[in-house]
Automatic annotation (TrEMBL):
Signal peptide: none annotated. The keyword DNA-binding applies. Pfam families: AsnC_trans_reg (PF01037), HTH_24 (PF13412). This is Lrp/AsnC family transcriptional regulator. Keywords: DNA-binding, Transcription, Transcription regulation. It comes from Tropicimonas omnivorans. Residues 5-66 form the HTH asnC-type domain.
Length: 156
């Protein structure tokens, strides 16, 4: 379903992206509207799939997940069965925060959150025992400089 998003919708989305726990009254006050129109617009945006779901963002370090690895994977296999097994292996591993299929020399990049290098090695060993890959390069993030879940909402 395609939905037209206007300036008011963008304001509502910006409010939700900054703090989805706000009440409808707070959102309405912050955008200069009233509660019922805000509720109707949020419902419209949910029905259209613009708002996928609402969640809580946890601090990984507070939970002992201090190591963030970016894993670059090359494979020489591209058939449907290999892809099915690979995607299944990624889906069941909660350490995998993101996975992307790429254009270029690297086939896939994963963002993996674990406690330490030993935990990463357990993840790596389990993954390569399930799917064959040509090469794996793991890059340890030394410092997270910017991280956001907020999408840009300008009308460009």
């Amino acid at each position: 379903m395609s939905v037209r998003i206007d300036a008011t919708d963008r304001k509502i989305l910006a409010e939700l992206q900054s703090d989805a726990s706000q009440s409808l009254d707070e959102i309405a006050r912050n955008i200069g509207s009233s509660k019922t129109p805000v509720w109707n617009r949020i419902r419209k945006l949910k029905d259209a799939g613009v708002i996928r779901y609402q969640t809580v963002i946890l601090d990984p370090e507070a939970l002992g997940l201090e190591a963030c690895f970016f894993v670059l994977i090359r494979t020489s296999e591209h058939d449907a069965e290999w892809q099915r097994r690979f995607l299944e292996a990624l889906q069941v591993r909660e350490e995998v925060m993101e996975a992307h299929r790429l254009a270029g020399d690297i086939d896939y990049i994963l963002k993996v959150r674990v406690a330490n290098a030993r935990a990463y090695d357990r993840f790596y060993q389990a993954l390569i025992s399930e799917v064959r890959v040509q090469s794996v390069t793991a890059l340890l993030s030394m410092e997270e400089i910017k991280a956001t879940t907020a999408l840009p909402l300008s009308e460009d």
